[in-house]
Task: structure prediction
Amino acid sequence: MHDIGNGRGTRWRWFFYAAATYNLVIGGAGLANSAAAVNDRIVGLLVLCFGIVYAIVGRDPARFGPVLWAGIVGKAGIVALLLPDVFAGSAAPGTGAILSGDALFTIGFLVFLLRRRVTPA
Result:
């Protein structure tokens, strides 16, 4: 994939827009759930905010790509924190699917950042 190195490729832009949409939908749903505890709604708000960050990265991956390190830490951290509950069967329905999405985006962010660092501009 030629567009990995320079961070400007259309494929990467769409990937980051997909990550943004994913976070906006999941975060917005969590925030809008009035039956959820306030702490859960705060998590929804933060997930939604990361969606805004990914949309900004999508506009100019070469310039804003480094902020994806925060996304990697956040997504990998969520997976690490919630995966034991999924395996134990005590997580909310759908949590495993959401964590799968987080894991896939984490891998994509890593590929983008690591390939970008080793490829000459």
